[in-house]
Design goal:
two-stranded antiparallel sheet; alpha+beta; four-stranded antiparallel sheet
Length: 125
């Protein structure tokens, strides 16, 4: 499990910068007009200018080795069932932006580090 570049701080900074650029550039479709009705009350109308809500994270497998140990110092925690994961805290609840961030982040890590399976994951709220 070797790294092409042993400076993990630079790799993480590069991954974060790529993630932020991708998240900021993500095209988010607004939810638009939403009608909420509940029982006997009158329906309420909303316009949601943001996209769908959700979560995204980056997963790294396996959870051993020098790189995995370094990631723990950058917010990665044990994931389920194995490996490490780091949830995207940027971009509020904007699922599309969070996923763009996670994909770009994982891409950089995959390019810079050998011996790990690194990918983005997410779910809608």
């Amino acid at each position: 499990m070797n790294s092409k570049s042993m400076n993990y701080r630079e790799i993480i900074a590069k991954a974060h910068a790529a993630g932020m650029a991708a998240g900021n550039a993500a095209r988010v479709e607004p939810l638009g007009h939403i009608v909420v009705s509940g029982g006997s009350s009158e329906p309420r109308h909303f316009y949601e200018s943001h996209g769908v809500c959700g979560f995204a994270w980056v997963e790294v497998h396996p959870n051993r080795g020098a790189f995995a140990k370094a990631l723990k110092g950058y917010g990665f925690r044990p994931g389920y069932p194995k490996g490490l994961s780091n949830w995207v805290s940027e971009f509020g609840q904007e699922y599309d932006r969070k996923m763009a961030y996670a994909r770009a982040y994982a891409k950089v890590l995959n390019e810079e580090v050998d011996g790990y399976n690194i990918y983005a994951n997410g779910r809608l709220d």
